[in-house]
Amino acid sequence: MNYYIIAGEASGDIHAAHLVAAIRQRDAKAQFRGIGGDAMAQQGVQLILHYSNLAYMGFIPVLMHLKTILRGMKQCEKDILSYKPDAVILVDYPGFNLRIAAFAHRHTQAKVVYYIAPKIWAWKERRIQSIRRNVDLLLSILPFEVEYYRQRHDYQIHYVGNPTVDEVASYLSRHPEASPPSPQGKAGERPVIALLPGSRRQEVLDNLPRMIQGAAPFAADHQLVIAAAPGLSDQFYRHILEKNKVQCPMPNGQWSMFNGQCSMVNDECSKNVSVQWVRDQTFRLLQHSTAALVTSGTATLETALFGVPQVVCYHTKAGRIVSLLRRLFLRVPHISLVNLICGKEVVPELVAHQMSAANVRRHLAAILPGGNARQAQLEGYRHMAALLGKPGAPDKAASIILEHLKS
After folding, report:
1. Is 330 helix (H, G, I), strand (E, B) or coil?
2. Which of 15, 56, 401, 405 has the fewest CB atoms within 10 Å of its CB?
3. Closest CA to 159 of 111, 97, 116
4. Which DSSP string do the residues of 234-258 spell out, in sequence order?
């Protein structure tokens, strides 16, 4: 069969790649085409666009790049008509993908499958109408969504497990004792604080400088290491650090080391601070981290599954206005997957104007070894893992998809 698959960000790219692999095991003649990233390309998906060309989040960034997004949508629609797929598989990214679902439903004979259901329980609940009209099969990776869709909307969805559980379990089985990442490729002497500022340009621009400011007072006793996003260049990170007056030498090798005076980053600290970044080693970084600062998204779940205490950080421009709008429009009290799955606050969330260097510093101190919040987070992580269940999400999703297509 021919499949058209669309993922609009880094985590979706990884989830889609594993789904592609699982479908190939069951459909030897499967052909894939669509929009995604490097992980999908490695699985043999013929990409017409890389997701980095479309990955904008938030009202202002989307408005500023609306022409680019609409151009990509038109290119995708035209390509679907030309390709004539048997199934269109949409992975998260609802602002774009629900429009493609409507187009495919109206103009093709393809079955529309949505893998990683839109989070209408958080906001834009009216999207259920579009889902009813245009989606033939809806698959969920969050256990509480089945009850939500059934009780509130009388709509059947399938919980297949969570692919992040599979990805972390697979990594740990292959790398049970991987050495910690370091500039020299050997174990570092100081414990690591991981900085995961997101996969989108605007997320990183908004969050990384404040993460560094908040973590700077701990740099004397810890290594600060950034997990670089696959769609963002070294020059992009270099520019952020230079703009924030962190000096950026140009060493060779996989790691880049940045040395500057902490007083340049945080006026309350006069010690030297070393900030490094690592590329394509996020799991390895988390495996050897003692704590993390994480922008909300799949990374919060990954961090929890590695058992790393975290502070969720999500700064936005016009933070107080965003906080007010959040109370008016969001239907849930939390933004991180960890808290949403557990149904309570397990990890602290610093959102909009609450995401300041001072708040980051205070919460980070509480989750480092000896901190008063560390053990409670680890206990919450164990409860979350039990709710998510065992690995097997891509395999189960692939089986349901093929069964649906054959029927």
Report:
1. coil
2. 405
3. 116
4. HHHHHHHHHHTT-------SSSEEE
Q: Which of 381, 362, 383 lies closest to 372, judged by CA?
A: 362
Q: Give the separation between CA 144 and CA 162, rounded to whole angstroms.
A: 12
The burial class, CB within 10 Å (0-12 / 13-18 / 19+), for 137 is buried
Comparing CA positions, the residue from 251, 250, 241, 243 lying closest to residue 273 is: 241
Which residues, in sequence order, are bridge partners of residue 226?
195, 277
Question: Is 192-388 in the same CATH topology as 2-161+392-406?
Answer: yes
217: helix, coil or strand? helix
Sign of the Cα torsion 397, 400, 406, 407 reads negative
Residue extents of the structural domains in the chain: 2-161+392-406, 192-388
C-alpha dihedral sign at 89, 91, 94, 96: negative
Phi/psi at 36 (nearest 5 deg)? 180, -145
Gap between the Cα atoms of 16 and 32, Å rounded: 11
**Residue the block writes with tokens 């309570």:** 344
pLDDT tens readout for residues 101-132: 999 999 999 999 999 999 999 888 999 999 99
Tell me if residue 209 falls in helix, strand or coil: helix
3-state secondary structure 68-105: HHHHHHHHHHHHHHHHCCCEEEEECCHHHHHHHHHHHH
Rg (CA), the chain: 21
Backbone angles phi, psi at 207, to 5 degrees: -105, -35
What pLDDT is attached to residue 238?
84
φ, ψ (nearest 5 deg) of residue 318? 55, 50
Which residues partner with 261 through β-bridges? 272
The pTM for the full model equals 0.80
**72-86, 127-141, 326-340: segment of lowest average pLDDT:** 326-340
Tokens of 71: 């151009």
Please return the burial class of 358, using the count of CB atoms within 10 Å of its CB with bins 0-12, 13-18 and 19+. Answer: exposed
- For domain 2-161+392-406, give the CATH number: 3.40.50.2000
Topology of domain 192-388, CATH? Rossmann fold (3.40.50)
Could you tell me the CA-to-CA distances from 244 to 86, 256, 261, 312 in Å, in that order?
A: 50, 17, 11, 22
